Each structure stands twice: as structure tokens, then as C-alpha cells.
Amino acid sequence: MSTSHQADEQPPGVPRRWLAVFSLGLATFSVVTTEMLPVGLLNPIADTLNATVGRAGLMISLPALLAAFFAPLVVLASGGINRRTILRWLLILLIAANIASATATSMNGLLVARVIVGFCMGGIWAIAGGVAGRLVPQSSLGLAISIIFGGVAAASVLGVPLGAFMGDVFGWRTAFLAMALLALLALILLIKSFPSMPVEHSVTLGQFAEQLANPKLLAGLLVTVLLVAGHFMAFTFIRPLLQTVSHFDDNWIGPLLFAYGLAGIAGNFLAGGAAAKHLRPTLTLITLGLTAAVILFSWWGGTAVSGGLITLLWGLAYGGVSVSLMTWMMIVTPRSIEVATSLYIALFNIGISIGAVTGGQLVDKYGLTTNALMAGATTGLALVVIARVKIKAEPAP
């Protein structure tokens, strides 16, 4: 994987290069929305395919676990393959996976399609995170990375409400077909705009070993796992939470989750600016908000009004998680950003998998409110790590 942070001198020109950056943002939005889609469709899919809600949760945990494996592997194993070629084929696979999901007739068949989604997720995240510096000059690198990973942030908060809304109106199979069309749009945009991008310098195992001995990076990865796992322990089951605890009717779930998404986008922008200047206070506030939201669902979420307010707080807090944690990675590893990014992606998705699997087990055995309490305890542990680590930038090369 290239470690260059200078834009290639070859054509296309500046406007087309920014179009290429937007194509990467759309690609990350497409793949992460595909990952999140089943959260808002969990009950309808489980009912159609005769599966328990807990087993249906594997639609989240399985691709996340595989993405964690493939992200660093792609960085190491992609070798001399042109990055444009890799991205094209990953998007083609993503289109196929969504079509297979839409036409699945059993939970096993749907899970096979989700395996392909996991491969696409790990690959697209890893490649997209490493090529921004070859598309734009150093002075614009921050904006390019914000656009690319803004696709991740937007999908994390909008993927669920979009899926729930489309599922309620048109059926859950149509939601997957819509994602296939969105991935096709990303592919077309990438074909039209993305320059040839051969490899310059490959990442080595030695670089991974060096960063795995970096205590500040390891602390950030631990916080990542705790926050993401705790969030997904509860959020994988947000639809049944809203229905059974807060007593929302089915037709209110989509609009409420869309409001959650809007709150999340607001949180992303608020945290993005604050984290660059005051990372520790920003992450502390985000963690407190996230912990309070999931715990309050058990104690105070018994009405539609309180459940709705808690959901908005939840979206606002979680919307700032990905951008703040990515800022942590870039601050403590300026000389190995690609390595740190792939490890961050891996641990982020491990957190998703741990959260979804653990939440599924707790929900099936002990119920939704007990699971929410355990989720809050998990995110709360991140406060201990954040308080103990002095996050200071290392010298850039």
C-alpha cells in the first residue's frame, strides 16, 4: 500500500480528482450502509426467514468480524495491484452481495451474502483510507480524508433509519436492491473519475509490529472496541427496544431512526471540529452521552416521549465516535497512518461483532433491558482508559 502523501502528477485534473475523492466517500457510504442495513430490518427479516432475533443478529456480527480480518490483510497482500482495479472489483462484489441478500430464501443464504459484504467492507475501508494523499495535495489532505471517512460516519448514523424506512414502505428486500443501485452509482463515478494508481511503497509486517507496540495507539484501539461493542450490544436491537420498551408503533420506527440519524450527523460535525483541538474532553463527553443513553433506556425509556428523547441523545453521542477515534489514530501515528487506519478498521469491526453477538445472547437469555444495562457498563469502561492516557501528537516525518 502506498505511503505517499503527495498527489500524483499525472492527469486527470484537479476537479476530476475531487470527483474521485467523492466517489470514495460514496463507496464507503455504500458499504457501511449495507453493513448497517439489517439493524433496522431485523424483525421483518427474522419473521420472513423463520429465524430468532438473536440469530438474525449474525447479519451484523458476521460481516463485521470478516471485515476486521480483511482490512489489515488487504494492506499487506494487495501488493502491486493497481488500487483502481481493486476498488472496482470490490464494488462489483458489493453489488452482487446486495442482490443475493435481496433474493435470499433462507437465513443461511442471507448469511453467505453477508460474508461477501464483510470482504468488501475490509477491502474498501483499507484501500480508501490509504489513497487520499495520492489524489490531492498535502494542503487538502485533511478535507479529502474527512470526505472519504464522512461516508463511514454518515452511513453509521443513516444506514439504519434508511433501511427501516424503506423496509416499512417497500419491504426489506427492496432495501437491499436499493443498496445495489447505490453501489452501482459509486462504481460508475469511480470508473469515470478515478486515476490509475499503481503501488509506490508497500506496508510491511515490521511496520505493523512497530505500531502494535505503540501504547497510545493500543489505548485508542481499546477505547474503539469498548465504545463500538457497547453501542452495538444495544443498537443491534434498537427496533425491538423501541417497540417493546417504549411502545412505539411500527410506523413510527422509521421516522424516529431517521431523526436519530440526523442527530448523529450533527454529532459528527460537532465532534469533528472539537476533537482536532480538544480530543480528550470531546471523547469523554461522547462516552458519557453514549453510556447515559443506553442505560437510560432501561430506567426511563418506558414511554414514547422518553424513548424518543433518549434515541436522539444516543444518535448525537454516537455520531461523534468514528471521527473522534480516527483523529486519535492520526495524532498518535503520523508516520504510519495507513497501518493505524487498517488496525482501527479491524478493531472497529471486531467491536461491532462482539457487540452484536454478545447482545444477541443476552437478549435471548435475559431480555432487552438487561442487555441495555450491560451495554452501558461496557461503554462506561472506556472512560477509565480515556482518563489515563495522555494523547499527544508524535512528530510527523
TrEMBL record:
GO terms for cellular component: plasma membrane. SUPFAM superfamilies: MFS general substrate transporter. The keyword Cell membrane applies. Residues 20-394 form the Major facilitator superfamily (MFS) profile domain. Gene3D superfamilies: MFS general substrate transporter like domains. Pfam families: MFS_1. It is a multi-pass membrane protein. Keywords: Cell membrane, Membrane, Transmembrane, Transmembrane helix. The chain crosses the membrane at residues 18-37, 57-79, 86-105, 111-131, 143-164, 170-191, 217-240, 252-271, 283-302, 308-331, 343-362, 368-387. It is found in: Cell membrane. One of its GO terms (molecular function) is transmembrane transporter activity. Its main location: membrane. This is MFS transporter. It comes from Serratia inhibens.
